[in-house]
Write a structure and sequence with these properties.
heterodimer; A: about 140 residues; mainly alpha; 6 helices; B: about 140 residues
């Protein structure tokens, strides 16, 4: 059985992510960027809200499949500290919109296109995330 | 057909995220913890996704148009501005705090955990906050038209 989080699982999961990104371009001519697609459901200036909502519905349905087939893959959140989760969620939401993408749009799709903007964004968010983990784990000694 | 394609691409993508380990915040934090017991597994996700994406995109973009839409609509900007830096930095901070980026957080809703719901609601408030104060940072050709 494929152990979620192992290197073979990472390679296989990454391949499925890559195929999904290529399928989005081949079928609809678009980048598969989760933050942009999903934020556009509620953004004041947006288009194709229905298609975006269907993409989100597909992701939620995929999550249900994952939960049934690989229960270990969905352990929930890392903390139950509500304030921590709210601050993190706000930063992820605001930051991905300001920077024009997240791990999927900039990371996977942007690097596949060899986009200098996406390479820059990916290096910045990776580096800042690593520094953030360093501070929370090794300076303040864990999530309160 | 377009509607179905959005649904099924979203579903396939979510399954890929679930298999890969991205929906396990402790794995993600373990990957980001370069000063601790660094867990390299997640590097292989990006590696394998980008190899397939690179060759797949090159192949697809040789066609005149996508199968279900009139034309390709890929970003054309190449300037690197302060918003890109600032946005990526804020996102990185949030990602490091919770171990969730947008896609995996949405997939993790299926865990039924209220903590994931709280994160996702805050994330949508963050999306909306940015989209209310300014137009999209990187509008696509279709959004400008």
């Amino acid at each position: 059985m494929l152990e979620p989080g192992s290197i073979p699982a990472a390679l296989l999961g990454g391949a499925v992510i890559g195929v999904a990104a290529v399928a989005m371009l081949a079928l609809n001519g678009r980048i598969l960027g989760v933050s942009g697609l999903v934020a556009g459901i509620i953004a004041p200036h947006s288009s194709e809200r229905g298609l975006r909502a269907l993409f989100l519905a597909g992701m939620l349905a995929g999550g249900v499949v994952v939960g049934k087939v690989l229960p270990g893959a969905l352990p929930g959140a890392i903390t139950s500290n509500t304030l921590w989760l709210i601050v993190a969620g706000l930063l992820v939401g605001f930051g991905t919109r300001l920077g024009g993408g997240c791990t999927s749009g900039h990371g996977v799709c942007g690097l596949s296109r060899l986009s200098p903007r996406s390479l820059t964004a990916t290096l910045v968010f990776m580096a800042v995330a690593m520094v953030t983990v360093f501070v929370t784990r090794h300076v303040i000694g864990g999530i309160p | 057909m377009r509607a179905l394609s959005f649904f099924f691409v979203g579903m396939l993508f979510a399954i890929g995220l679930g298999i890969s380990g991205m929906t396990q915040p402790t794995k993600v934090i373990g990957f980001l913890d370069v000063a601790g017991a660094w867990d390299p597994a997640l590097m292989f996700i990006m590696g394998s996704a980008v190899v397939i994406g690179f060759f797949g995109y090159r192949h697809v973009l040789r066609r005149p148009a996508p199968l279900l839409a009139g034309r390709f609509d890929v970003p054309t900007r190449s300037d690197i501005d302060a918003r890109l830096f600032g946005g990526a930095a804020l996102f990185g901070m949030g990602w490091g705090l919770a171990g969730f980026c947008p896609g995996p957080a949405l997939v993790a809703l299926a865990s039924g955990s209220l903590d994931v719901v709280i994160f996702v609601v805050a994330m949508f408030v963050g999306f909306l906050a940015r989209d209310l104060v300014g137009r999209p940072t990187a509008p696509t050709a279709a959004a400008r038209a």
